[in-house]
Amino acid sequence: MFEQYQFKNKLSKSKEIQSLLDNANGVCRKLSDTELEPLALDGYEYTTEDALDELGLDDELVHQLVEDYVIQILKSKFLFLDCIEELKKAQNSDKQPDYTPLRELAHKNLGVARNLRIKDAEKILAELMTKENLPYLEACVRALESCAIKLKPLCAYHTLKLIDIKNTLLNTFV
Predict the structure, then answer these.
(1) Residue of higher predicted confidence among 169 and 143
(2) Which of the residues 97, 109, 139, 149 could staple to 90 if both were Cys, CB 3.0 to 4.6 A apart?
């Protein structure tokens, strides 16, 4: 009986991961056709070849670093959105918006993307560092998250599940 449940659970998990990946591909496609068209994100496929050649690291280590990057981006998404919300509040109250926290966060993540030669993330993070159009920046954050999911869907699935569990626990005990 337990083995049957485990098999069904694996099928369900596989479907969830595929759904997550399909959604990420759809977001990238939609944003590439609209707000982020100049970045040409749709169709980009990351390979580790450049990172392997230029950094002189072994394949397993590069894959682990890419997984660490995916986790970092999925966690940073909330920080990016918090920064954008603060900028919106400043704009709405006629205060001078301070883009420094957003740009510092983008810069930190850009360094990792450059080291790993993740070209779509490099483009998006460069936009987050330089642009001031808040709806555009929100679209960049959505694209960044989707591009990270596409890199390592299984890792992204586990990370998002852990984030969801953590948020549920925080909301339960607050």
Answers:
(1) 143
(2) 97
